[in-house]
Amino acid sequence: MSKFRAVIFDMDGVIVDSEPRHERAFFEVIEEIGYGNRHGVVFSEYVGRTDTDLWKDFVARNKPEQPLEELLVRKRLKVLDILLRDEPLFPGLYELVRTLAQTHVLGLASGSERCIVDAVLGLRDLRQFFKATMSGSDITHGKPAPDIFLKTAAQLGVAPGDCVVIEDSKPGIAAGLAAGMTVIAITNTHPGQELANAHHVVSSYDEIGRLLAG
Questions:
Q1: Which of 12, 17, 51, 168 is catalytic?
Q2: What is the pLDDT, as a whole number, of residue 104?
Q3: What is the b/e burial string over 22-55, where b = at least 16 CB atoms within 10 angstroms of the residue's CB?
Q4: Which of 57, 115, 117, 198 could make an SS bond with 135 (beta carbons 3.0 to 4.6 A apart)?
Q5: Structure confidence at residue 214 (pLDDT)
Q6: How far apart are CA 79 and CA 72, in angstroms?
Q7: Are 182 and 196 in contact (CB under 8 A)?
């Protein structure tokens, strides 16, 4: 797969082990506002999607007194605190990124808000390796729409067909395929059988390195 010029990483569940931390922050907020046991939201259905999607559905279902923007801010602050405290980079991720940056241009395409993307990029100075970074704040339609991957490729100056996407979620895989990119799925969040639509399914960062070095 060495013919590919660019590698585009998802962030949550690929760069940082943040999905359980997003979930924890969400449930802390809804507990605080009195919906701990009656929110009607299945958090796992929102993995790979934006916080705005999650909270819009919560508001539509429950009609809390707090406005959407306040709920977004409250969860955002909790997630930032957790990520900066835990620094939950996946083992092997930093070494993979550092190695790939020597042979490919790298992009990051995350449905998270820009402030969270920036906080993660500050961990171990990951920012130095990425030529383009996109957040959920930079697009109108989140995954499974292909917009964020197409916009990242455009920022990198690389045609979609020359890009490889690293994903962990089903909406992310769908977005990468819709963008016309090759998709490698890693089993950080879902078992392999749920990621079978990807071109390649792996369980470690070493496997990704070997695929992209081939």
A1: 12
A2: 97
A3: beebbbebbeebebeeebebeeeebbbbbbbbbb
A4: 117
A5: 62
A6: 11
A7: no
Give per-residue burial for 79-116: e unless 16+ CB within 10 Å, then b.
bbebbeeeebbbeebbebbebbeeebbbbbbbbbbeeb
Residue 91, preceding peptide bond in cis (omega within 30° of 0): no
Upper half-sphere CA count for residue 23 (Cβ side, 13 Å): 15
Contact 113, 150 (CB under 8 A): no
pLDDT (0 to 100) of residue 57? 92
Give mean pLDDT in consecutive 10-residue pieces for the chain, a chain of 214 residues.
Answer: 87 93 92 86 84 90 94 94 94 97 97 92 97 94 95 98 97 97 96 97 97 85
- Of the candidates 43, 75, 49, which has an alpha carbon nearest to the alpha carbon of residue 147? 49
The answer to whether 138 is a known catalytic residue is: no
pLDDT at residue 1, rounded to an integer: 55
pLDDT on residue 48: 76
A 10 A CB-CB count for 144 gives: 17
* Tokens linked to 9: 């990483």
Query: Are the C-beta atoms of residues 26 and 47 closer than 8 Å to each other?
Result: no
Beta carbons of 126 and 88 less than 8 angstroms apart: no
The residues near 192 (Cβ < 8 Å, ≥ 6 apart) are 185, 201, 203
12 is catalytic: yes
Report the C-alpha gap between 55 and 41 in whole angstroms. Answer: 10
**pLDDT value at residue 53:** 87
Give the pLDDT score at 52.
87
